[in-house]
Amino acid sequence: MAILTYSDEKRLFRGNQENFIDLIRTGEEKGVLVYVMTTSDFKLTGKSAVGFSYHFQTKSWKKELLPLPHVIYNRIPYRKFELLPEVQQIIQTCMKHGQIQFFNPAFFNKWTLFEWLNKSKETQEFIPTTQKLTTSDELEKLLQKHPSLYLKPIRGKAGKGIMKVSRVQDKSKSRRFQLSVQDKTKSHISRYTNVVQLWTQIQDMIGTQDYIMQQGITLSNYKQRPFDLRVLVQKNGLGEWNIAGVGARLAGKMSITTHVPRGGSIDDPAKLLGAGFGTLGTRKILRRAKRVALIIAKQIEKSSGTMLGEMSMDLGVDGNGQIWFFEANSKPMKFDEPHIRKKSLDNLILYCIHLSKISAKKPKAAGSVKKKASKSAPQKASR
Ligand SMILES: Nc1ncnc2c1ncn2[C@@H]1O[C@H](COP(=O)(O)OP(=O)(O)O)[C@@H](O)[C@H]1O
Ligand SMILES: [Mg+2]
């Protein structure tokens, strides 16, 4: 298996090296040769490929000729790399390759995710009402339907650029809108008398970026700090979707999101849910969250028209125990919970073994297209 990433002059290549090393080790345990391939050394003709193998004894990377991979695991970090024409071309080559299985071809974006999930009856109910952020009139209309809205960059991650707008009543009844803007670890709050003022401020913050506005969900909280669930969904050794684990992220005291770098913390979902829903309620909610995550993963894969092997999902739980989908990520960050971490590495290698068996069965004819990808036009990286 080749882990595909972007090259870097100083560090050889981008991406989380520790993560790659863990995967290489897990591969070794299960008899799979795993190495790192960069977009600048990419070549799939001939019998071998150029890649970086890891030498555990010397703790060093060595660039060498390695056997062509059966499977390519896409870990190109950042959309800006993925969108480069030369990288796009490599992705297309991988997707169309007759003998190589390539999964997770592109980043998701929050608007297409919404469109994909909103068109299926099965997933619709878990999606907060979402629209593109276009005009102050539209913002005002949606704000009349919901007491608070989340504004999020379509291509954002890790809480960057997230804002929350709420309707408020202050004593003089003059300041009707509150805007919370997520900064490094806190959110800054300001108030506005009318939508025009609010809109001016929002436009100032978003510049030319595309945004969505989304119904704000009142998350369940633990000691007054809201939390949400992070679910890792992966395919297993049979090529079937399953849940690698469910973690929880507790928001920082002054934060409107739950990201750890923004003051949030990792915690045990059963403990956090248990405080509000009791043991039985918690069991029910976790079971429901897992079921919902699987339904959503299948719908995302189907709508994307591409082959996917894993994704992480942010799910909210409201005061009634209802599950809400916030987003899915096709390049999941490493989970720090040891049991989820182990399962995630095992799943990836087992899925890779599963895929390599499919590769072996593929006809040698050039230009044969993968079963899943052939259902619709190969998907371009999300823009
Ligand atoms: N509609 C919403 N209602 C309530 N909380 C939300 C909503 N959308 C996002 N959040 C909170 O903000 C966090 C970040 O949102 P998310 O959509 O995952 O963006 P990012 O890509 O920046 O991680 C979520 O994990 C959740 O805690
Ligand atoms: Mg998120």
Number of helical elements = 9
Whole-number total of structural domains: 3
Residue fraction in strands: 25-35%
Cα gyration radius (Å): 22 Å
Task: Quickly name the level 1 CATH class of the largest domain.
Answer: Alpha Beta
Structural class: alpha+beta
Ligand roster: adenosine-5'-diphosphate, magnesium ion
Describe the strand arrangement of the main beta sheet, using strand numbers.
9-14-10-11-12-13
Question: Helix proportion of residues, in percent?
Answer: 25-40%
CATH superfamily of the largest domain: ATP-grasp fold, B domain
Uncertain runs? 364-383
Mean pLDDT: 90
**Run of helices and strands:** EEEHEEEEHHEHHEHEEEEHEEEEEHEEH
Count of DSSP strands = 20
Span between termini: 28 Å
User: What is the correct CATH architecture of the largest domain?
Assistant: 2-Layer Sandwich
Shape: globular
By CATH, the topology of the largest domain is D-amino Acid Aminotransferase, Chain A, domain 1
Major beta sheet, specifics?
6 strands, antiparallel
InterPro entries: YheC/D (IPR026838)
Region (Disordered): 360-383
Organism: Paenibacillus rigui
Biased composition (Basic residues): 360-374
Descriptive key words:
single chain, 383 residues, alpha+beta, Rossmann fold, D-amino Acid Aminotransferase, Chain A, domain 1, 20 strands, 28% strand, globular, binds adenosine-5'-diphosphate, binds magnesium ion
Q: What can you see in these coordinates?
A:
- The protein is of the alpha+beta class and 383 residues long.
- The chain folds into three domains: 124 residues, Rossmann fold, CATH 3.40.50; 147 residues, 2-Layer Sandwich (D-amino Acid Aminotransferase, Chain A, domain 1); 86 residues.
- The chain contains nine helices and 20 strands.
- The protein is globular, with a radius of gyration of 22 Å.
- The C terminus is likely disordered.
- The structure holds adenosine-5'-diphosphate (ADP) and magnesium ion.
- The site of adenosine-5'-diphosphate (ADP) has 21 residues, from β10, β14, β19 and β20.
- This is Endospore coat-associated protein.
- InterPro entries: YheC/D.
